[in-house]
Amino acid sequence: MWDIGGRKGTAIELQGHNDKVQALSYAQHTRQLISCGGDGGIVVWNMDVERQETPEWLDSDSCQKCDQPFFWNFKQMWDSKKIGLRQHHCRKCGKAVCGKCSSKRSSIPLMGFEFEVRVCDSCHESITDEERAPTATFHDSKHNIVHVHFDATRGWLLTSGTDKVIKLWDMTPVVS
Q1: What residues make up the domain containing 28?
Q2: Is there a contact between 83 and 26 (Cβ–Cβ < 8 Å)?
Q3: Residue pLDDT, tens place only, 13-44
Q4: Residue pair 47/32 in contact by the 8 Å Cβ criterion
């Protein structure tokens, strides 16, 4: 965990929504985090999972795999007589790579990426099926949630949305 005052520790990311996260609730008795978003998704995160910190993105003027220049590297483009490429970053190793060297996508739930993200080709080959196993469950609320309240004693989740609808969910099959 990150110590804000001490400015040290490990910061983890959890990416499981297609729109902004609007509400969070923590079920302490099961160590699960419930996140609700503007995409209508309810995501239940298992917080007992040992997650990895995402790498810092590395800076480079050329692809760190094939050495092709990026479009702002005029000197290398002129010297090699090649058009510069767009820079991307591998979400697993953080290297600056071109589109050709990062043509694959993968989920990396242990790093918080429940949806597929760009990875360099060599990292894609190294990711095992076990590393791709989800660490969260996804549920569609059918409305854009703006507020949530979880009653742990009953296992109920109360949501309200932009559609002016309040919904009461029995979360006991999910949060356990």
Answers
A1: 2-51+135-170
A2: no
A3: 899 999 999 999 999 999 999 999 999 999 99
A4: yes
